[in-house]
């Protein structure tokens, strides 16, 4: 699971301050959990600390930023009496994300994230170093399952404790519910598709829709709008913008996963090919290759998910380009971005929020390799 | 993780009807999720169905029964205008329990529960039968992690949608938070203690306190009291009663796990010994054996967690009894039960609820082998 598109601190006034504000809220929330955690003793304190470290050190606070911008864009202001509660509720999205990442790293057998061992690997190593009984890997997985659960439960606690007025809380609840159900459903479709070998463009797009777009942009914006009591037209415009930009962002991420500069992506070149990710890019390529170039189709199918050499990565890049899959994905990104910006421009979003969302959209989808 | 003490349908008037009422609420809640689940397609519909089947077919609805009885015992009535919302909020405890069981079955590598394959085994078998790509076991675990997450998220959704008045919802939130944090912490202490080989009675009692007592009885009663707006004295009495009976219940369960009749417990005789559970019973035995009978200590340590024969089970039973560990645990159960009933009797709980809680307490802790 991707950490999400970058918050374009250079372009969006206040983006830096929202990141700091979210982190301050998260730190404050962890402070409130100590009275619940400490009575259970040092072992649980350590585990809660591992979760806190994970949440505090990580990420661009993409989802809270979209939610907060969605709230502002519906005509609210940081001086609004509800602003404080809204910012806390938006920040809780980072705890949902912590659960998603910790559990996804188990599912993907990922060993590192953001330059640190993943949570399950961290506890696996503690087990091994202390020469405890039993299987270190299973212990690490078990602890990480529980730490992810804790993050999910705490996400809810944080929104309940935010101090939202009853009417705002009532409007918030169904969006919060949809967001969590959709991201879990999207992850499920993803692992199912990988195992069942569903190679269609439609399947890959559906996973993008729920695992990335709804979760990362559409629902956070919707959440901000719901908290603000926005009218249905603005909510519809946000959702259209968020879905399109969210899918476009994932398509860009897919291209970066194959063609990206390791210095920019932070991942080894061609890593997505070695992981065997079933992206729209791959689906587009296979769809074309099955018709016009069966040898290329075989090359892709036998290489994906294997430990391929740099030379094979180069060869696959050339094949994906020659098949027209790269162009097709670029065209999708362009079309989705244009649609999204049209919906945004036509909406009643405040001019400030329009500027900020436009710049976030372009940063999330821009060619960067 | 145990399913919880039995609801004594023979003794407690209305216990049968609460079980049916909880199941009706759960079924109704799953109905409301369909509009969220169906847009993601048949794969997610299947997974949500697996969760629904798991929740609907299972269990004695112990936690909702305690919560509901706690609410009634604070002077409320089933005719109260808030009764409907309270019953729904109490029923949501079954979804927390579904998450706990599904994830615990992964952690314990359990293959069956309630006569059915566990969720991770169910999806492992689907994967294998369809001859999909990748490791079937890892696929099953991955799907079960997500299904458990879904249960935890849906537990929250169910309480938010219950229709609680704002003041009741505000009183409910911190108890709901404590309950979830404590059960996750208790599970963490459990797997840590098993790996780290913590053999002390204190460690085993602490796990009982949080993993079983707080989660199963203390906090559900507290939740009912909080929803009712009960005074601090009644809340304190409930919590004292719930903690003591909850620990006593787990101690009884530990004895049954070694001495229980398979026809009653539904588990092979001596199963807890084969699983290597670090119970208070074992801790009491080891504490004694280390002083008075080193050979017995070695026998226990080398047998626990291994695939021992029925003859070795009999031998261990005799050793645990001769060491006085069984008597010590029986005495703890008696003392805790007496303390609990004294607290209950002295409380302002309604006479009806006192009768029902007394009978639930005795059913949960009675010698049954």
Termini distance of chain A?
21 Å
**Given the structure, what is the number of helices of chain A?**
17
- Indicate the CATH architecture of chain A: Orthogonal Bundle
Q: In what order do the strands lie side by side in the largest sheet of chain A? A: 1-2
CATH class of chain A: Mainly Alpha
The figure for the number of domains of chain A is 1
Report the principal-axis shape of chain A. Answer: flat
Which fold name fills CATH's third level, the topology of chain A?
Farnesyl Diphosphate Synthase
Quaternary form:
homodimer
Radius of gyration of chain A: 21 Å
Helix content of chain A: over 70%
Q: Output the helix-strand order of chain A.
A: HHHHHEEHHHHHHHHHHHH
- How much strand content do the residues of chain A show? under 5%
Low-confidence stretches of chain A: 6-13
Biggest sheet architecture of chain A: 2 strands, antiparallel
Query: Tally of extended strands of chain A?
Result: 2
CATH superfamily of chain A: Farnesyl Diphosphate Synthase
Please state the average pLDDT score of chain A: 93
Which structural category do the helix and sheet elements of chain A fall into? mainly alpha
Name the largest protein-protein interface in this structure: A-B, 57 and 57 residues
